[in-house]
Amino acid sequence: MLVMASFTGCLDSTDDVEPEGETNYSQTEQQSGGGDNDTEEDEILLNEIRNLTTKLEELRESVEALTSENDELQDAMTNLEFYQYDAPASSVVYIYDLTYDDTWADMYEWTENVTHLLNQGFSLEKLFRITKENNTITIEHVGRATTGVNFGLLPDSPSNCTTGPWNGFSFLNGDGSVIMDYPNGVFSFMMGRAEVIAECEVAEAQRDNHYWQTTGDYYWSKIIVELPEEPDRFTYGDELYTFA
Q1: Radius of gyration over alpha carbons of the chain, in Å?
Q2: How far is residue 11's CA from residue 78's CA, in Å, rounded to a whole number?
Q3: Regarding beta strands 178-182 and 239-242, do their DSSP bridges make them parallel or antiparallel, or are they unpaired?
Q4: How far is CA 73 from CA 64, 81, 82, 108, 174, in A?
Q5: I need a surface site. Which of 71, 163, 228, 238 has the fewest CB within 10 A?
Protein backbone atom coordinates (compact mmCIF):
# COMPACT_ATOMS: atom_id res chain seq x y z
CA MET A 1 0.00 0.00 0.00
CA LEU A 2 2.73 2.46 0.75
CA VAL A 3 4.46 1.82 -2.60
CA MET A 4 1.35 2.52 -4.61
CA ALA A 5 0.66 5.79 -2.88
CA SER A 6 4.13 7.10 -3.59
CA PHE A 7 3.91 6.29 -7.29
CA THR A 8 0.56 7.94 -7.60
CA GLY A 9 1.98 11.14 -6.13
CA CYS A 10 4.69 11.27 -8.75
CA LEU A 11 2.19 10.99 -11.56
CA ASP A 12 0.09 13.81 -10.18
CA SER A 13 3.11 16.18 -10.06
CA THR A 14 3.75 15.95 -13.82
CA ASP A 15 0.49 17.70 -14.78
CA ASP A 16 1.98 21.20 -14.23
CA VAL A 17 5.19 20.64 -16.28
CA GLU A 18 5.32 21.90 -19.91
CA PRO A 19 7.57 20.36 -22.58
CA GLU A 20 10.91 22.19 -22.94
CA GLY A 21 10.69 22.60 -26.71
CA GLU A 22 7.34 24.32 -26.68
CA THR A 23 8.53 26.86 -24.09
CA ASN A 24 11.54 27.97 -26.17
CA TYR A 25 9.44 28.49 -29.34
CA SER A 26 6.93 30.62 -27.60
CA GLN A 27 9.60 32.96 -26.14
CA THR A 28 11.30 33.42 -29.47
CA GLU A 29 8.04 34.29 -31.18
CA GLN A 30 7.19 36.88 -28.54
CA GLN A 31 10.61 38.59 -28.77
CA SER A 32 10.50 38.97 -32.57
CA GLY A 33 7.08 40.56 -32.57
CA GLY A 34 5.86 38.37 -35.41
CA GLY A 35 7.05 37.99 -39.05
CA ASP A 36 4.12 39.90 -40.66
CA ASN A 37 4.73 43.06 -38.60
CA ASP A 38 8.39 43.24 -39.67
CA THR A 39 7.43 43.13 -43.36
CA GLU A 40 4.91 45.98 -42.99
CA GLU A 41 7.40 48.23 -41.18
CA ASP A 42 10.06 47.61 -43.84
CA GLU A 43 7.60 48.58 -46.58
CA ILE A 44 6.69 51.79 -44.74
CA LEU A 45 10.37 52.75 -44.46
CA LEU A 46 10.96 52.04 -48.14
CA ASN A 47 7.99 54.25 -49.10
CA GLU A 48 9.33 57.08 -46.95
CA ILE A 49 12.75 56.78 -48.60
CA ARG A 50 11.13 56.86 -52.03
CA ASN A 51 9.14 60.00 -51.08
CA LEU A 52 12.24 61.73 -49.75
CA THR A 53 14.17 60.85 -52.92
CA THR A 54 11.38 62.30 -55.06
CA LYS A 55 11.28 65.50 -52.99
CA LEU A 56 15.06 65.80 -53.23
CA GLU A 57 14.89 65.53 -57.02
CA GLU A 58 12.15 68.16 -57.11
CA LEU A 59 14.28 70.48 -54.97
CA ARG A 60 17.25 69.94 -57.29
CA GLU A 61 15.10 70.86 -60.31
CA SER A 62 13.83 73.95 -58.48
CA VAL A 63 17.39 75.06 -57.72
CA GLU A 64 18.36 74.63 -61.39
CA ALA A 65 15.31 76.64 -62.48
CA LEU A 66 16.12 79.43 -60.00
CA THR A 67 19.73 79.47 -61.19
CA SER A 68 18.55 79.88 -64.78
CA GLU A 69 16.17 82.69 -63.76
CA ASN A 70 18.98 84.39 -61.87
CA ASP A 71 21.20 84.31 -64.96
CA GLU A 72 18.38 85.86 -67.02
CA LEU A 73 17.90 88.56 -64.39
CA GLN A 74 21.62 89.33 -64.43
CA ASP A 75 21.47 89.78 -68.22
CA ALA A 76 18.40 91.98 -67.87
CA MET A 77 20.16 94.11 -65.23
CA THR A 78 23.16 94.50 -67.50
CA ASN A 79 20.90 95.71 -70.30
CA LEU A 80 19.08 97.98 -67.87
CA GLU A 81 22.33 99.56 -66.74
CA PHE A 82 22.95 100.57 -70.37
CA TYR A 83 19.67 102.52 -70.43
CA GLN A 84 20.20 104.04 -66.98
CA TYR A 85 23.27 105.97 -68.09
CA ASP A 86 23.69 109.38 -66.47
CA ALA A 87 25.52 111.76 -68.81
CA PRO A 88 27.65 114.68 -67.56
CA ALA A 89 26.15 118.16 -67.60
CA SER A 90 28.55 119.31 -70.35
CA SER A 91 29.57 117.24 -73.35
CA VAL A 92 30.64 117.56 -76.99
CA VAL A 93 30.00 114.90 -79.65
CA TYR A 94 31.01 115.03 -83.32
CA ILE A 95 29.14 113.48 -86.22
CA TYR A 96 31.34 112.47 -89.14
CA ASP A 97 30.62 112.21 -92.82
CA LEU A 98 32.28 110.16 -95.54
CA THR A 99 33.42 112.65 -98.16
CA TYR A 100 35.04 112.28 -101.56
CA ASP A 101 37.61 114.58 -103.11
CA ASP A 102 37.46 114.22 -106.89
CA THR A 103 40.73 116.16 -107.29
CA TRP A 104 42.82 113.46 -105.59
CA ALA A 105 44.06 112.13 -108.93
CA ASP A 106 45.52 115.51 -109.84
CA MET A 107 47.68 115.43 -106.72
CA TYR A 108 48.68 111.76 -106.98
CA GLU A 109 52.19 110.94 -108.15
CA TRP A 110 51.56 108.50 -110.95
CA THR A 111 54.22 106.19 -112.31
CA GLU A 112 54.14 103.68 -115.10
CA ASN A 113 54.12 100.73 -112.67
CA VAL A 114 51.26 101.96 -110.46
CA THR A 115 47.73 100.92 -111.31
CA HIS A 116 44.57 102.69 -110.23
CA LEU A 117 44.09 102.36 -106.46
CA LEU A 118 40.66 101.64 -105.00
CA ASN A 119 38.91 103.99 -102.56
CA GLN A 120 41.21 106.91 -103.23
CA GLY A 121 39.87 110.37 -102.41
CA PHE A 122 37.60 109.20 -99.58
CA SER A 123 37.98 110.47 -96.03
CA LEU A 124 36.00 110.93 -92.82
CA GLU A 125 35.40 114.56 -91.99
CA LYS A 126 33.56 116.27 -89.17
CA LEU A 127 30.05 117.25 -90.21
CA PHE A 128 28.27 118.46 -87.04
CA ARG A 129 29.43 119.40 -83.56
CA ILE A 130 26.76 118.66 -80.93
CA THR A 131 27.30 120.55 -77.67
CA LYS A 132 25.28 119.73 -74.55
CA GLU A 133 24.98 122.11 -71.62
CA ASN A 134 22.44 120.55 -69.26
CA ASN A 135 19.25 120.52 -71.33
CA THR A 136 20.43 123.06 -73.94
CA ILE A 137 21.68 121.57 -77.22
CA THR A 138 23.70 123.42 -79.85
CA ILE A 139 24.17 121.86 -83.28
CA GLU A 140 26.90 123.47 -85.38
CA HIS A 141 27.69 122.64 -88.98
CA VAL A 142 31.47 122.25 -89.16
CA GLY A 143 31.67 120.44 -92.50
CA ARG A 144 32.44 121.83 -95.88
CA ALA A 145 30.38 124.51 -97.55
CA THR A 146 29.11 122.75 -100.67
CA THR A 147 25.62 123.76 -101.74
CA GLY A 148 25.58 127.36 -102.90
CA VAL A 149 29.35 127.77 -103.18
CA ASN A 150 29.10 127.90 -106.95
CA PHE A 151 26.64 130.77 -106.58
CA GLY A 152 28.80 132.95 -104.38
CA LEU A 153 28.34 131.41 -100.92
CA LEU A 154 31.50 132.28 -99.06
CA PRO A 155 33.07 129.40 -97.14
CA ASP A 156 34.20 130.04 -93.57
CA SER A 157 32.40 133.34 -93.28
CA PRO A 158 32.70 132.74 -90.33
CA SER A 159 30.92 129.39 -90.60
CA ASN A 160 30.01 127.04 -93.40
CA CYS A 161 26.28 127.01 -93.96
CA THR A 162 24.38 123.94 -95.02
CA THR A 163 20.87 123.00 -96.06
CA GLY A 164 20.91 119.73 -94.07
CA PRO A 165 20.70 117.75 -91.92
CA TRP A 166 19.31 115.08 -94.16
CA ASN A 167 18.65 112.67 -91.29
CA GLY A 168 16.45 113.23 -88.27
CA PHE A 169 17.59 113.87 -84.70
CA SER A 170 16.05 112.26 -81.60
CA PHE A 171 17.17 113.06 -78.06
CA LEU A 172 16.85 110.37 -75.37
CA ASN A 173 16.96 110.35 -71.58
CA GLY A 174 18.73 107.85 -69.34
CA ASP A 175 16.15 105.08 -69.68
CA GLY A 176 16.00 105.33 -73.46
CA SER A 177 12.74 107.29 -73.72
CA VAL A 178 12.48 109.95 -76.42
CA ILE A 179 12.52 113.50 -75.05
CA MET A 180 12.12 115.26 -78.40
CA ASP A 181 12.11 114.05 -81.97
CA TYR A 182 13.11 116.16 -85.01
CA PRO A 183 12.52 113.84 -87.99
CA ASN A 184 12.64 116.38 -90.84
CA GLY A 185 15.90 118.19 -90.30
CA VAL A 186 16.02 121.95 -89.90
CA PHE A 187 12.29 122.32 -90.57
CA SER A 188 11.46 120.17 -87.53
CA PHE A 189 13.74 122.33 -85.39
CA MET A 190 12.02 125.47 -86.67
CA MET A 191 8.62 123.97 -85.86
CA GLY A 192 9.96 123.04 -82.43
CA ARG A 193 10.79 126.69 -81.71
CA ALA A 194 14.54 126.21 -81.91
CA GLU A 195 16.82 129.13 -82.68
CA VAL A 196 18.21 128.72 -86.21
CA ILE A 197 21.21 130.90 -87.11
CA ALA A 198 22.91 131.47 -90.49
CA GLU A 199 26.44 132.78 -89.92
CA CYS A 200 27.46 132.83 -93.55
CA GLU A 201 27.53 135.36 -96.38
CA VAL A 202 27.15 135.55 -100.13
CA ALA A 203 29.73 137.36 -102.24
CA GLU A 204 28.51 140.85 -103.14
CA ALA A 205 28.88 140.21 -106.87
CA GLN A 206 26.56 137.19 -106.61
CA ARG A 207 23.79 138.64 -104.49
CA ASP A 208 21.66 139.36 -107.55
CA ASN A 209 22.14 135.81 -108.84
CA HIS A 210 18.91 134.18 -109.93
CA TYR A 211 19.67 131.21 -107.68
CA TRP A 212 19.35 133.26 -104.49
CA GLN A 213 16.11 134.79 -105.70
CA THR A 214 14.45 131.48 -106.45
CA THR A 215 16.10 128.82 -104.27
CA GLY A 216 13.88 126.88 -101.89
CA ASP A 217 16.82 125.73 -99.77
CA TYR A 218 17.09 126.97 -96.21
CA TYR A 219 20.66 127.70 -95.13
CA TRP A 220 21.88 127.57 -91.55
CA SER A 221 25.10 127.17 -89.58
CA LYS A 222 23.88 126.76 -86.00
CA ILE A 223 20.77 125.44 -84.24
CA ILE A 224 20.11 126.01 -80.54
CA VAL A 225 17.28 124.16 -78.83
CA GLU A 226 16.25 123.87 -75.19
CA LEU A 227 14.83 120.45 -74.34
CA PRO A 228 12.27 119.82 -71.57
CA GLU A 229 14.79 117.57 -69.78
CA GLU A 230 18.48 116.80 -69.91
CA PRO A 231 19.38 114.21 -72.57
CA ASP A 232 21.89 111.39 -72.16
CA ARG A 233 21.96 110.13 -75.75
CA PHE A 234 20.73 111.08 -79.20
CA THR A 235 20.25 109.45 -82.56
CA TYR A 236 21.12 110.85 -85.96
CA GLY A 237 19.56 108.68 -88.62
CA ASP A 238 20.17 105.08 -87.57
CA GLU A 239 23.23 105.86 -85.43
CA LEU A 240 23.14 106.13 -81.63
CA TYR A 241 25.45 108.64 -79.91
CA THR A 242 26.21 109.05 -76.21
CA PHE A 243 27.08 112.26 -74.38
CA ALA A 244 30.22 111.38 -72.43
Answers
A1: 49
A2: 103
A3: unpaired
A4: 14, 12, 14, 57, 20
A5: 238
